[in-house]
Amino acid sequence: MTAVVLVGSLKSSSEPSSSELLARQVLDAMAPHGVTGTVVRLADHDVRPGVEVDMGDGDAWPAIRRQVLDADILVVATPIWMGQPSSVTKRALERLDAELSETDDEGRMLTYGKVAAVAVVGNEDGAHHTSAEVFQALNDVGFTLAAGAVTYWVGEAMGSVDYKDLDEVPEKVAATTATLASNTAHLARLLKTSAYPPV
User: Fold this and answer.
1) N or C: which end of the chain has fewer CB within 10 A?
2) Are 75 and 5 in contact (CB under 8 A)?
3) What's the 3-state SS for 7-51?
4) Which fold has domain 2-193?
5) In whole angstroms, what is the distance from residue 161 CA to residue 157 CA?
6) Hey, where are the domains in the chain?
7) Which tens digit of pLDDT belongs to each residue from 131-148?
8) What pLDDT is attached to residue 199?
């Protein structure tokens, strides 16, 4: 099985990212369950605003969308800004809105049968609110979420220590990431062998 991670850091890949670090830890935790994956740092790409599959010449979303549709699992990794998912993450979710109009021959969205999970980091409160926003958006556009489909770390509010600065992964974060990986891979395997019924 395969996974793609959309990292909603506001920074390009030339800079370290706590969101990407946690995202890669999710992929590492999925590996023992037979999942391989890739990471897409959204800030590296010109994802145009809009709610269409393709917003025209130069839009990077169609290629990213192809990776999402080719994968069995989608992981959305986002920092918390002002208690919410990042603007980069929200733009990707808006682009996924186009999937409401994309269906197979039996009326199912092309995202049906794909499983999603979320990773959140920040130096302020809002991990539950942030994951709830992303969960709802992903479910609206056809993704299925397993039990325990989020892992997160929240540091001291307005603190100077980021997740990427920690000397080791906190035990609770590691355990939560392991549960996310196990449950998400399990559900993806089930849906791969037993599809949703026609609409």
Assistant:
1) C
2) yes
3) ECCCCCCCCCCHHHHHHHHHHHHHHHHCCEEEEEEHHHCCCCCCC
4) Rossmann fold (3.40.50)
5) 10
6) 2-193
7) 999 999 999 999 999 999
8) 84
